[in-house]
Amino acid sequence: MSGRSTVHVEVTAIEQITPQIKHFTLRPVDRAPLPAFSGGSHVVVVMRAAHRVHRNPYSLLSAPSDRSAYQIAVRRMEESRGGSEFMHTQLQVGSHLEIAHPVNLFPLDKIARKHVLIAGGIGITPFLAQLEDLHDGAIPYELHYAVRAAEHAAFAERLRAREGGRVRFYFDNAAQAIDFDGLLSGQPLGTHVYVCGPAGMIDRVLATARRWGWPDSHVHWEKFSAPPSGRAFEVFLARAQIGVKVLPDQSLLEAIEAAGVEVPYLCRGGVCGFCQTRVLEVDGELLHHDHYLSDADKLRGKSIMPCVSRANCKSLVLDL
Amino acid sequence: MSAVFKPDETFRDDFSFRNSPAAIRRFPLPFPADDYMYSVNLEPHLPGPRGSVTEFALDIDEHYVAECRERAIVLAAEPLRFQALPHMMSAQWDCLELIMESLARDYSQHFSLARDGNRWHWINRPLGIDKAFTFGDASTLPQPPLEFITRQVQGDWVVMDQRDGDLWTEAGMVTTPADWSLDFDIGMTFKEWHGPVPLAHEMNVFDRALKYLLNLRLGAPVRRLNWTMTVNPRLDTAPELYPFWGPDRARVDATNAGDLVHLRVELQGLWRLPRSNGIVFSIRTYFISMRELVTVPKWARRVHRVVKNLHPALVDYKGLSRYRDAVVEWLAPYDDGSPTTPGAAPE
After folding, report:
1. Could you report the per-residue pLDDT of B102-113, keeping only the tens digit for each?
2. Phi, then psi, of B224 in degrees rounded to 5
3. Which of A130, A152, B212, B284 could form a disulfide with B155 if both were Cys (CB 3.0 to 4.6 A apart)?
């Protein structure tokens, strides 16, 4: 975001931990202590590729008390817009990156009586740091971790060693599936449930929790939508008095930034609401992909989240 | 500010508190213009000019030692001025770290902090404290971590947990309140806590402020100024003690207002806390008597106009109803009607 201070880090270790996931260790170049953080936090990693800058959020999975290095894991996306591709193919030990300070949009509830954690695939990452926090306390917890097959279960050995019976694995190829009804119908009062994984898994947990009468305040989810690609369109920034072209695989926010206009942001995933921008005029349709604006707001069409949303329009004028 | 401490000042009984000429010049006047209304006046807490109250993250000034002694007096009588709910322990350590790091970095002549992993060694020279302890192990400190460190720093401290899309007031050290009570407010949400403030709710000030604070970023603290007036430089105007300070208001008249009435300004800072994901809110109080204030001619004109034209609901909420007219009358001779320059700085 504007005026945001970044930390320059060096990649000090890269490990291929599943066929699609690489595990990176990032140490500050100046070796000064990094900020401590809370489990569930992410950092936005700034990747300066040859022709464009990628800024992707990745959950921190290292122990929050470890201020010497941060660790992240990146899954190579089949339809990468360039970020995960860059992380997988361009980085070597010794490469430099910039990261922003950690932000937590998926924290553990501090007055919960019990935590039920549900991970799908790469969605395990925020829970790894949260488990470090949970080890210190007396609050019961359990982790349910679903992956396509055993070889895709990142950090499985570490979890088995440290968590023992508190972690349960589910492998799709062995026809094992989480019994969401069974899991969510029998929890004691004061339990909080957390889910991070594919959209379908999150939707099922939310629907199941609602059906069993869970209060919304006890159901937590994290879904970083990668900005979807779409057709190219043009936008006019009223205050800057410039026109900007948004390419098919570029987000509106990225295009605005590439034009030299700074927009405040935190999550770049359509969750936090920080980059909310006023729409002054639109001739066409806004394609809202965020989880922040209400349906009514989306219909009203006066605001857009440029980090994930696009437009299918003849013209679009933003208050920037 | 390289201040010489005035350890014998008092904020009760004989009220010997005074500002030096240097302290008057750096007073954080909260009025950038000749009128005043609420706004979401939050700004990044970036270093201000050399010598100003915002030069450093936390301001230690000539009243430091005396204010710490005043806090100890209050706590001895009323231990519940410090409270922390059980789930706030990691936030307590976050606050201890923030305060120790800031003081040792910015006032190395007075404070030092040596760290070897979790083994910390803290030295506070003005208060004569030398303590080795284990960070994260509360049994190695004589008081809970937040109490231990806030006994050694000026200003009140409130710690909020963030959950359910709200901020919950769940720990704090409040011995210098402008008529509000931690004991009454602990456990409240952000809007419940601010419930008594007039007008601002209708202006959606708290909706906007809450939304802003929920997204407060680590490493990017913010600040604002707030103000009221207090008769005598009495730091502890707790509502529970109203019988002891409320009647002072009836003693103010146009002849003694210059010495009795003090502008009371709060420099409020807000930091995101790293381990707990909570937010700490510091309320650092500055006093200036009307007589000290008029030594800056621009401020005399400015404050005369602000107080004279203040919205009636704010006059009432700030507790000024009884003596506002006396203050205006006392200040009037210092306002010749000439314009003031924009901004709050002295001319």
Report:
1. 999 999 999 999
2. -155, 165
3. B284
Structural domains in chain A, sorted by start:
6-104 (2.40.30.10), 114-222 (3.40.50.80), 233-318 (3.10.20.30)
User: Best residue in A2, A4, A38, A305 to probe B by mutation, most B CBs within 10 Å?
Assistant: A38
Which chain B residues contact residue A109 at CB under 8 A?
163
pLDDT tier at A16, thresholds 50, 70, 90: very high
Q: Which residues contact B95 (CB under 8 A, 6 or more apart)?
A: B145, B146, B149, B150, B157, B159, B273, B280
Q: Nearest residue on chain B to A275, judged by CA atoms?
A: B215
Size of interface A-B (CB pairs under 8 A): 53
Q: Which of A1-5, A63-67, A234-238 holds the top average pLDDT?
A: A234-238
pLDDT score for B36: 84
**Measured CA angle at A75 (ends A58, A208), to 5 deg:** 80
The separation between CA A196 and the C-alpha centre of its own chain, rounded to angstroms, equals 9
pTM: predicted TM-score of the whole model, two decimal places: 0.89
Q: Please tell me the distance from the alpha carbon of residue B53 to that of residue B45, in angstroms, as a whole number.
A: 11
Calculate mean pLDDT across residues A40-69: 91
Query: Pairing between strand A219-222 and B222-231?
Result: unpaired
A64, A101, A103: residue with CB nearest B275 = A64
What residues in B contact A38, CB-CB < 8 Å? 274-277
| Phi, psi (degrees; rounded to nearest 5) at B44 | -60, 140
Domain ranges of chain B: 21-334
A60 in contact with B, Cβ within 8 Å:
no
Q: Which residues of B are catalytic?
A: 224
For chain A, positions 27-46, list CB contacts with chain B under 8 A: 35-38, 40-41
